[in-house]
Structures are given as structure tokens and as C-alpha cells.
Amino acid sequence: MARVVVDVMLKPEILDPQGKAVHGALPRLGFGGIVDVRQGKRFELEIEGEATEERLAEVHKIAETLLSNPVIEDYAIHVEGATASGKHTA
Q: Could you give the subunit structure recorded for this chain (predicted)?
């Protein structure tokens, strides 16, 4: 069994109100030196067997059709414990 992680983030040109709210709160809470904050989503998928190229291609399809909105979001996929990763920017 392998764990595949899909990180979904708003594209850089898309406004991120939640990230801005967190960024604005940091100085009020005594935290400094943070230039920007972007909020995203993380999905962990447990897959049967090994994380083969075919299985990862299927995860890319899942990320494109269900986990992200390709119009406003990018996603990155990596296998936990592995050095190989894939990033999708539409």
C-alpha cells in the first residue's frame, strides 16, 4: 500500500481572502517576518499496491476531475516516503 498526497493551491493570480486574513492576523498576534500567506488543501490517498506510473496517472485524473478546479487551482502530487513527485500547473 502506498500513500499519495495531492496538494491543491489557488493559482498565484487568484485572490486568496483566507490567506490574506491569516496574513493580517499574524502581526496582531506577535508574529513578524511573514511576507505572504496562501491557503490550500491537502488530500492523502491510500492506494492498493505500489505507486506505479499507471496508478499515479490515475491519481492525476482524480486530481483534475474531483480534487481541484483547474480553472483557478494548481495541484502537486507526491508519494510519501519517495523522492519522485509530479506537479501540474494548468
A: Part of the FGAM synthase complex composed of 1 PurL, 1 PurQ and 2 PurS subunits.
Q: How far is CA 7 from the centre of its chain?
A: 2
CA distance 47 to 36: 34
Domain that holds residue 21: 2-88
Does the predicted model carry a pTM greater than 0.90?
A: no
Decide if 73 contacts 11 (C-beta within 8 A).
Answer: yes
> Apex CA 78: angle with CA 17 and CA 22, to 5°?
20
CATH number at residue 50: 3.30.1280.10
State pLDDT tens for residues 5-45: 999 999 999 999 999 999 999 999 999 999 999 999 999 99
Instruction: Look at the chain and report how many structural domains it folds into.
Output: 1
Q: What is the pLDDT of residue 56?
A: 97
Which 3 state secondary structure label does DSSP give 71? Answer: coil
